[in-house]
Amino acid sequence: MTKKRANKLFDSNIFWLIISLLAALVIWVYMTGTQEEVIKRTLNDVEVVFEGQERLQAQRGFVITDASAQTVDVVIEGRRLDVSRLSSEDVKAVINVAGITSTSNYTQDYTLSYPDNVDAGNITFVSGTPKNISFQVTLMDERQFPVEAAFVGSVAEDHMLGDIEFEPKTITVRGPQTVLETIDHIYAEISLTDLDETRTVESGFTLIGKDGAEVPGEGLEFDFNTISVTIPVSVVKTVPIYVTLIEGAGATRNNTKIELDVDEITIAGDASEVDSINRIEVGPVDLTSFDLTYEDDLDVVLSNEVENVSGIESVHVAVQVTGLAIKEFTVTNLSYDGLPDGYAAELVTQSLTVRIRAPQEVLDQLNSTNIRAVADLSNTTATGTMDTSRVRVVVDGALQAGAVGTYRLTFNISR
Q1: pTM of the predicted model, to two decimals?
Q2: What single DSSP character describes residue 53?
């Protein structure tokens, strides 16, 4: 064949069509022969399933626990066409438990199941590792367990953690009897950092066994899936103690010296309450109830919204009036007012000794004619001899002077 004729042949479409058909035929013959080849294949981590488990639970109240393996490795054999397209996810290792009638420990072998589009008759199960699966059949049960909760985080500076609260206090668990027998309590743990306000958190929980180890919760049912945990956080504040005074008889805060055995206390509470408190008041101390000195224990009273962190329930208060003096006067100017209509009053008391407090120079200028005692009889409701302490002593013309102590006048009341 000459070079010219050869070139003509290679340029022919018919020539290349014939070549293509021959190549396709060769490939088809090869592939057909290969797909029909019988091969073995290993599938790892094939899932173990218990067929009839739902029926077992519904009819007898039995459940499967403690399976010795969740997956197996299997070797299968068949045509390459069938075997090569299978994966571990397509195949299941099946154990039929529908016929079990009693609780016990069992060891059974398994069969393999394949997808519907695979002809199981063309595949042979060669071997499996492990060969058998051990498991336990036990009764379903329902028990109630106590809940414990803990906060393991931290609170911010100048804040205080209170006792945490949580709900529910118990949780009912339904599951295999053998599993429930190992549970001691249910535990929730909250971890937050630098907490500066009260928080309520919905928390998951773990099951704690009687040996202190965690019990897996797979296959168990709970009447609550979370625990509501409230972490109370209070603002902590130190505030001074302030003695309130009822001024009078020449005594004011300016000429009174006050000493306390405790100057301040620490309180805690919600920020909305604590932020507005700048002092804790005790008293009042009536400056007209004593001469020049006073000493007593006064209660520290807080609102229900505030906690007394210091725990100080009372303070010892000493009061001294300075720059004033005391002088006694005998008063004969005695009277009354406020007597209800229809009543008449006759004084039994003829004179009254009163103690007047004022600067010394004022006392030196006073005499009994400047002083009068007036009884308030507005509460009169009966007749006869009546003694009243509702008596006010008036010092006319001396604003810096006043009576200290309590005085009484006696009347005959008639109608």
Answers
A1: 0.60
A2: H
Domain 235-321 has CATH 2.170.120.40: yes
Neighbouring CB atoms inside 10 A of 178's CB total: 16
Q: Which residues contact 223 (CB under 8 A, 6 or more apart)?
A: 171, 172
139-231 and 325-414 share one CATH topology?
yes
How many residues are given for the chain? 415
CA distances from 303 to 53, 127, 267, 311 (A): 62, 78, 11, 14
> Hey, what CATH class is 325-414 in?
mainly beta
Q: Where are the domains of the chain?
A: 3-35, 38-130, 139-231, 235-321, 325-414
Q: Are 107 and 165 in contact (CB under 8 A)?
A: no
In this predicted structure, what is the pLDDT of residue 161?
Answer: 94
CA distances from 129 to 6, 39, 86, 194, 363 (A): 64, 19, 18, 53, 114
Q: Which CATH code, of 2.170.120, 3.90.550, 1.10.3470, 3.80.10, is assigned to 38-130?
A: 2.170.120
Residue 108 one-letter amino acid: Q
260/280 Cα distance (integer angstroms): 13
Range 139-231 has CATH code 2.120.10.80: no
Mean pLDDT in runs of 10 for the chain (415 residues)? 54 66 57 69 94 87 89 93 89 93 92 88 92 91 95 94 95 91 96 93 96 91 96 95 96 96 95 92 96 96 92 96 97 96 96 96 94 96 95 93 96 96
| Cβ neighbours around 94 below 10 Å, total | 16
Q: What is the model's pLDDT at position 5?
A: 57
Cβ contacts of residue 29 below 8 Å, gap of 6+? none
| Sheet with 402-404, edge to edge strand ranges | 325-331, 352-358, 402-404
